[in-house]
Amino acid sequence: MSETKNNNKFENPHYAKREVTGPDGKQFIVDPIKDYFSDERPKVYEPNSIPVVEKFLNWARAESLWVLGFGTGCGSIEIPPLMTPRFDAFRFGIQSRPTPRQSNVFIISGYLAVKTLKRVIRSYEQMPSPKYVLALGSCTINGGMYFDSYNTINRLDHYIPVDVYVAGCMPRPEALLAAFNRLKELIKEGKGEKANEYAANFDWYKENQKKIIKDWNMPDYNW
Amino acid sequence: MSLKDTLIPFKAWGNLVKKPVTLKDPMREGAPRYRGFHKNDVDTCIGCGSCEAICENEAIVMVPAEGIETKDGDSGLRPLVDYGRCCWCGLCVDVCTTGSLSLSNEHTWICEDPEELKYIPGIDKKPWDEKEEGWKKPVPNYHFYGQERVSMEEMEAEERGDSFIEFVKGYSKEQAQKEADRCVECGICVATCPAHMGIPEYIKAIRNDDIEEGMRVLYETNPLPEICGRICTHKCEDVCSVGHEGDPLSIRWLKRYIADQVPSDKYKEILDTQKIYKGDKKIALIGAGPASLSAAYYLSLLGHNCTIFEKLDKAGGMMRYGIPEYRLPYDQIDKDVKYIESLGTEIIYNTNVDAAKFMELKENYDVVYVGTGLHLGRSTAIPGSDHEHVFQSIDLLREITEGKEIMVPEKVVVIGGGNVAMDITRSIARLQKIKYGKVGVITTSLEKEEVMPADREEVVEAREEGSIINPGWGPKSIEIEDGKIKGLHVVRCLSIFDETGRFNPSLDEDDKNFFEADMIVESIGQGMDISYLPEELKEKIEFGPRGRINVDDYFQTSLDWLFAGGDMIQGPDVIHGIANGHKAAIGIDNFLNKK
Amino acid sequence: MDFDIKRLGFTLLGLLIVLNWGLLMSSIMRKLGARVAKRYGIRWFQPWLDLVKNYALRSQISHGIMFYLGPVFRIGGGVGLFLFMPMIIGSELWLNYSFHGDLVLLMYFQFFGMLGMALGSGEGGHPYSAIGISRGLSQFTTIEVPMTLAIISLAIQYDTLSLIDIVKAQQGGFQNWTMWTNPVATIAGMFSLLGALSHSPFNLVKAPNEIPIGPPTEYHSTFLGVLQTNAAILHVVEAALFMNLFFGGATNWFEFILKTFFIYFWSVFVGVVFPRFRIEQSVAWFLKIPLVFGVLAIILYM
Amino acid sequence: MSLLNIETDRSKYPVKGEDGKLQIDLDSHKYVKLWQGPNHPGVTGNMALELTLAGDEIVESKTHVGYLHRGFEKLIERRLFVQGLPTSIRMCVAEPDSNEYVYSTCVEQLSGIDIPEMAKWIRALLLEMARLQALLRVVPGQGGTFALGLGVQWGVYMRELILDRFEELTGGRVYHMFMTPGGVRGLLPGGFKKRMEENLKEIDQFVINIDNLMYSNSVFKKRAIDVAVLDPSWIDKYGAVGPVARSAGYNRDVRKDYPYLIYDQLDFEPKVMNHSDIYNRSRIRWYDIQTSVDLIRQIMAKMPEKGDIKAETPNVLHWRIPKGETYVRSEASRGEYGLYMVTDGSDKPRRINLRGPSYTQAVALLQDLLVGANIADVAAIMVSLQTCPPEIER
Amino acid sequence: MKQVLEKLSASFEIEDIVYQRDDLTFLSAKKENLINLITHLRDIEGFSHFVLLSCVDWIEDDKFQLTYFLNKPEEKYDLGIRCMIDRKEASMDSAHHLWKQIATYQREIKEMFGVDFPGSPGVDEPFILEGWDNIPPMRRDFDTKQYSADTFFPRERPKTNDPKEYMKEQMHPGEWGEYRKEKK
Asked: Collapsing DSSP states into helix, strand and coil, what is residue C199?
């Protein structure tokens, strides 16, 4: 584990290392930070060495976008229309998944409160590479309505890399579909490598994240 | 778990044979009212920044735009919209003073670079610039600020027609605040005002019911607010951004409101001038008009001793002798002048400065400032204009002020379309009304009605009072029979300026008219009289085209001890005189400090 | 039992067909469900794309050795079920290795994958996985009861536990299908099929609104690809099992596809319009209606 | 079959300690600590429930909010009165129009402005449409929590139809920003009533379909009836309002009790039920859809054709309101929705405080209602209380 | 309702009664009497519905205003009870035993304003904010815009121009602004 700053003020008792007695009477040590999280840094993954294969894989990746069903802000109210009869994004290979482990696309649907940002970073890091981020609305670009709020971030690209921005407050489902189309084009062109960018500039992102999240009571990288 | 309840949900499978409701092509157009991306008609836009003021997200910033020039009434700035901030509420459209800003119904903009998402609508070309549909300012009766000017109480035409009493009553507090409330605080007017008065600031002071602050703002740039509040040519109102869709703010009346509220004995207290420093520098100012008064005021504040030499027996110059009392009561001039005097300025009346006196002043004073204005009337020089019953308006107005009896026949023709022509028209109309009970004035001018230089309300009011305003005629000759004037022959004037923009009226000789008159008043402009300047100085002073004295930015002539300002340099109007005086005061102060 | 390369080849080919048919069937079923919701639904080739995508993901993390083995057990269960399942009656080569095992073995394989998942997802450490798998195991246990009763009834009826023999006994016409000869057992069997295929109201294991998404919560990329592959195979093979037991088996691939499609569709048909049971309600339901039919089936054929 | 109802062994459940708190030792391995949310499809919006389970049963629950906190009340303190409108409406995304209404009405009331008759009708129309679109999401959403996604699919499509009408009328899909202080921003566009009527007909059919699919569905009934029963005495104790209160026999509807806008000219009767379980709480909203549809028809029939849309207001760029305070409430789909505004004579509000139904229902009430519930019912109970996290934390 | 208020004003030292609307009245009560007053209103007068508890920061008077908002459903009547407390080490008696949701309100006010309610359940636990290390954000002396600009890396944008100042630069450079010359 690289550098775990545990600010005492925000220490969570559940994360403390402790000795417990199991139901069978045996005593053992529990260190949740070690047990719950992986301490491995993210890696930069090279694309497949054969261009044709990589192209084929990119095509499959582009046409099968699994979206993490995490409504982070008000833009998430436009996700249900997308998935229902009017717009039916399923026919474009867009499906939603409830767990980050199985998702490839993270829709940041608008503003991020600092408290959510922490969860977003964890979810983002849990997503398997290659992964893509769609940022909806003004709030992710430059703070939007909440540019002067003490609890929402102003620009998302300081914390996680963003593939596509969608203008709007909030963007309509049409705009969202257009964003997915653009994302598909990018992936097919082999430009959807933001996950590698995150891994390459990991320290910079971490520094920014830690500046905002004052109670950083988890390891730097949490799988 | 009844069987019916188990079977009835299967009804849903009936949809299997129905057509899905999915949109085959999901890219729909937005609704006709949809609030999408911004459009701006940059030619209509004046860059007033109201959109920036109302934007709760600071999404709009005003930036200089390529191809847009800063000019009177147009700041040259255009709104830049940041889609990292915008929330598409459309309040900017609703508040837009010119109605240039609107939203298209385009709603999709995708990009990878977040820096891309800001642009100047109308300048940076976007695909939706041509789209017709989208959010526009709601109509009718939907306004974010008052569209109609709060009208001031006035005497009716019948009532005022035979009296020289000031007929425009001032605003009451409620009226003034209501009118001040309409201001959007853009500040575009400030550049146009020759004195660059703090217009938004004093209007704000009225809104806040803080008259003292208003006074302080006024006196920062204008020591004659009572006068300006009544007779200023209010160029600011011509460019007022609120005036694009509604009535412009009556900035002049608001200024008058502030000055009216304060009794003259409170001035020193409010303006914090009970005790001012006095140095040993002496300045002579010739002519007690607005330019000199303004210069004297600011020079007094800067600690100099000023002496004004006035030919006539009252101060005010053209303000007193050129403007009839019903527009500017004399006690209001006295109020402003008294305050300037109270700061240590001495006014020596009935002193005609001639060449000898001028040289004496040069010896005795550190600086001489001339602000003698334009007191010579110009003549049309048409046949018959040398007749004794052809008068100069400027002379008549002075005589009326001085209380002299002037000739008032039943029929009078006034030539001229400026404010002075209106003043004389209305003054004569009043005198006629007093004398004969009816009005018989015809006023004619070269300019057509739309381009007459006189203020609109002057023309309207003159007509209300019974005068006939018949513009668009070029005077040809004066018919004289038996040594008496019979009338004025005029022909239709087609245009005043030629293609190069020079003054060269083209007349239609076939379209003739004849105005009967016993007396003709010429009011087509004035010239300056600088005969008091000694000849040896005249040779040293540089003159510009049209015979005006050349001055630098601070109204210093080529002789460093001689400053000049007022109508003879710029104008003619009061506010230029005030501005000149103020600036000259700074110039004089700098000059004296250097010496 | 000697090694027959030809049989192995046909078996692998059969596996390939079953896999692809499973994928296609799942996309057709989802399209049908989408139609009921008045939309078009996924493209028919979406499952292949998803599969390729999942195998093509670059990063994967393991939570330990059992986490690895979970999907392996699961696909072991699916493929095992396939291996001992006769596909096409009348062709020696498409019978796979069915004559090596009987119904008891098949029922074991049905359960085998679930047990494997239990171990794997347990190692994954996610509480939802744990809740999901405990639900899955308890529900599957109760599913097995009516199913076993139905199979016992069949065993009594046909006097054998060999699936091939049961199928063969049904040949010779429509009227010989168990469906007609033993309708009560068929009802019990088809009810338990609803549970076995894990559609609503019995999709408690993954239950996205309650415990998203149960055992596979932690599985991703290749692991998930393996699970998807297994799901495609298992669904067809489960359907094939019931086809063989109750609907006379298949004599050619066309019949196979048609019958498995409708058997599978039965669970979709119910699943689309019913919400999900709670686990105790599900257990109670299986121990009520299907059990009654199962017991009845035995009593009738005793 | 009572044979299968096995009595739970209560000895393993936590007991209350001396301080009145449950004594839960997680290291004893008797209990599981489970977080539902913020990333959880069964949780409404972006909030979290910290559940402690003994088996499948919840023994302790805590609501965690703050994931959507934007500090609206602080932000509006530094915005002009007109600027507060676009900001305030984002306090609840599911039904923003109630925010618009209460905010604008507070401003109008404190500055003594009466809005024109036409504006009142349009506001009422918007409020009813907003209620309808919110209900179209939440009523089938109750089925969605039980994995009956079909109704959700239909319902969201019906909501789309209403959103189309919103877009046509107000220029916005979700955030309409139409009720500016002083009035509204436009009249009905031509042909609006006709298109609305077509949509309402579809919704009438949808109401029947959803009844067949959900409320007559045997499995739905089994899941929803007699689950999470709310004792009527809890209504006042916890400050529950709206459909939750009405399902427990309290006839409380702001539209009836404190008629605002033009509601006194409309003819309707809110439905009241006497047994507040998940089924009835959801069912009462299903009746509310019908009421709303009926009210929209009434409003469209009774509203004047033309009229002023905005009263004369001070210049919005420097609108000052003298010192004062007021509280304005309206009936949102979730119940009483109110705004407390304090002004201090400046051009910005001194303080606003929103009172959303979820503030009490999703924190105090939900926490206590969840104790003893099954883990499988958590999402259903949340939706049956119609929690909306943004209005808790704002 | 007026009679009731008159009756109460004698026993509970009520002042500043403002009849805001026909169905809404604001009044002020003293800190010591407040809990008794709302208990009385709830139990005797039938104000059974607790609407909201809010806090207003009057920083210029060095006071916090707590507003308890009660509703009487039978008579459709609202009562807002103001209570001024000192801003320094602000603390108020907890009313969580009267209505369940009050504990939530008090928790929020503790976090957002720093008003303590000793004894209220969970009042010290963070409610909305996480890892907050500044003064309570809803206080008037907390500048949210400044905090945001310092913390959240705002994006660089073109500088905005005031039309007045810009026109001065463009049209009359160096001419205006010097006017405010200092008096000697």
From this structure: coil
- For residue D145, the enclosing domain spans 72-393
Q: B33 lies in a domain?
A: no
Q: Quick check: B273 pLDDT over 80? A: no
Strand partners, B591: none
| 3-state class percentages of chain C: helix first, strand second, coil last, to nearest 5 | 75, 0, 25
Residues A89, A83: contact at Cβ < 8 Å?
A: yes
What are the distances in angstroms from CA B384 to CA A219, B390, B424, B480, D255?
A: 104, 8, 21, 7, 85
- Which amino acid belongs to residue E29? A
Measured at the alpha carbon of residue E183, what is the angle toward residues E164 and B229, in degrees to the nearest 5? 50
Report CB contact under 8 Å: E160, B52.
yes
Average pLDDT over every residue of A3-15: 50
Does one domain contain both D209 and D323?
Answer: yes
DSSP, res D183: B
Single-letter code of the amino acid located at D341: M
Q: How confident is the model at residue C27 (pLDDT cuts 50, 70, 90)?
A: very high
Topology at the third CATH level for domain E2-127: Beta Polymerase; domain 2 (3.30.460)
Specify whether B315 is located in the same domain as B255: no
Task: Please give the Cα distance from D307 to D185 (Å, whole number).
Answer: 12
Structural domain for C296, as ranges: 5-301
- As for how many domains chain D has, the answer is 2
Question: What is the pLDDT at residue D201?
Answer: 92
Query: Most C CBs within 10 Å: which of B13, B18, B25, as the mutation test of the C interface?
Result: B13
| Cα separation, B228 vs B257, whole angstroms | 11
Q: Write down which chains contact chain E via at least 3 CB pairs under 8 A.
A: A, B, D
- Phi and psi torsions of C278, nearest 5°: -80, 165
Beta strand segments in chain A, E: 18-21, 27-30, 65-68, 94-97, 105-108, 132-136, 164-166
Tokens of A29: 């040590």
CB C279 within 8 A of CB C43: no
* Minimal Cβ distance to D70: which of A81, A100, A152: A152
CATH number for the segment(s) A51-212: 3.40.50.12280
Q: Among residues of chain D, what percentage have pLDDT more than 90?
A: 13
User: For D337, which residue in chain E has the nearest alpha carbon?
Assistant: E51
| pLDDT value, residue C24 | 93
Residues 6+ apart with CB under 8 A from A12: A217
Q: In what order do the strands lie in the sheet with E24-29?
A: E15-21, E24-29, E77-86, E63-72, E49-58
Interface of C with A in 54-93 (CB under 8 A): 56-61
How close, in Å, is residue C216 to chain B by CA atoms? 30
Distance CA B256, CA B269 (A): 19
**pLDDT over 50 (residue A7):** no
Average pLDDT over residues C229-252: 88
pLDDT at A142 over 80: yes
Instruction: Please give the angle made by the CA atoms of D385, D389 and D394, to the nearest 5 degrees.
Output: 135
Tell me the per-residue pLDDT of B276-330, one tens digit each, with 9 for 90 and over. 777 788 888 888 888 888 888 888 888 888 888 888 888 887 888 878 888 888 8
Confidence band, pLDDT 50/70/90 cuts, at residue E180: very low
Give dist(CA A20, CA D26) in Å, integer: 10
Q: What residues in D contact A71, CB-CB < 8 Å?
A: 45-46
Number of domains into which chain C is organized: 1
Report pLDDT digits (tens) over B81-131: 888 888 888 888 988 888 888 889 888 889 888 888 888 888 888 888 888
Tokens 């010290």 locate to: E124
